[in-house]
Amino acid sequence: MRKTLVAGNWKMNNGPAAAVKLAREVRDGLRAVDLRGQALICPPCVSLPAVREIVAGSPLLLGAQNCAAAASGAHTGEVAAGMLAEAGCSHVIIAHSERRQHQRETDAEFVAKIDAAHAAGLTAIFCFGELLGERRAGQAQTVVRTQLEGVLPHVKRLSPANTVLAYEPVWAIGTGETATPEVAQEMHAFARAALAELAGREAAAAMRLLYGGSVKASNAGDLFAQPDIDGGLVGGASLQAAEFIGIVRAARDARA
Ligand code: PEP
Questions:
Q1: Tell me, what's the pLDDT at 111?
Q2: Distance (Å, rounded) from C-alpha 142 to C-alpha 146?
């Protein structure tokens, strides 16, 4: 059975002092949860060293929200995957829709970043998902297929051990609008079938596929009960310890 993962993407919230406070609340709250899957928090880069101290010795994992494609050198403002690993990260989010939209990142950059993450020993969380207009035009599956096809076959060392996929319909991110469990499951099943073609049936069966888009403690149980949803990538709700812990509990109960 695939292990669940609940990943909190803190985005550009919580500098070191606030991050320590929230990480401590999450860590302490999770003490009472008999985790069967994984729980991960992804603070802003500058807060990683402080949060690392808080999560040390706890099952709470640490991740980053982005990494550079290059390993080192003249890339002002960038942070290499190897540096994130050295700072205690086990995971890195790649291709979040906000980076697709605001930084105009491309498939070639995603491939290079995922390869860089793998070379540094990090698990890449690769995000994909359609825009509202694309869904309304009946193109959701075509868009998702194109996003997966443009990246995954080109990754050098793709495996379920080093890669997690996150289906994040853009219309559901930060909007309060969640895909219904049925719609989310339909897209996850579609993505898993596409993955089987692109990476083989075995990899598709073992790779974790998270759902992201306004996940809350109150809707997580129904989403995670779907057979192809292996946890969540959580934005807004990960900024409140009680909400995030509720979502982690829902993931645990879904695979009890
Ligand atoms: C996200 O940013 O990946 C996300 C899913 O955000 P939210 O949970 O706030 O919709």
A1: 98
A2: 6
Cα(74) to ligand 1 centroid in Å equals 32
Q: Looking at the domain 5-236, which fold is it? A: TIM Barrel (3.20.20)
Q: Where are the alpha helices (DSSP H) in the chain?
A: 16-30, 48-55, 81-86, 97-102, 107-119, 132-136, 140-149, 181-199, 201-206, 217-224, 241-254
Quote the distance between the C-alpha of residue 57 and its chain's center: 22
d(CA 82, CA 119): 8
List the structure tokens of 181: 């469990």
Nearest CA to ligand 1 atom 2: 235
Residue 168 CB less than 6 A away from ligand 1: yes
- Pick the closest to residue 162 from 232, 90, 99 (CA basis): 90
* pLDDT value of position 115: 98
pLDDT of residue 61: 98
Residues 6+ apart with CB under 8 A from 163: 114, 118, 123, 124, 125, 126, 155, 207
**Mean pLDDT by 10-residue block, N- to C-terminus, for the chain (256 residues)?**
96 98 98 93 98 97 98 98 98 97 97 98 98 96 98 98 97 90 98 98 98 97 98 98 98 90
Kindly list the domain boundaries of the chain, sorted by start residue. 5-236
In terms of pTM, does the model score above 0.90?
yes
Question: Quick one: which of 165, 149, 160 has its CA closest to 206?
Answer: 160
Count CA atoms within 13 Å of residue 175 on its CB side: 13
- What's the pLDDT score for residue 256? 77
Phi, psi (degrees; rounded to nearest 5) at 102: -85, -35
Is there an atom of ligand 1 within 6 Å of 177 CB?
no
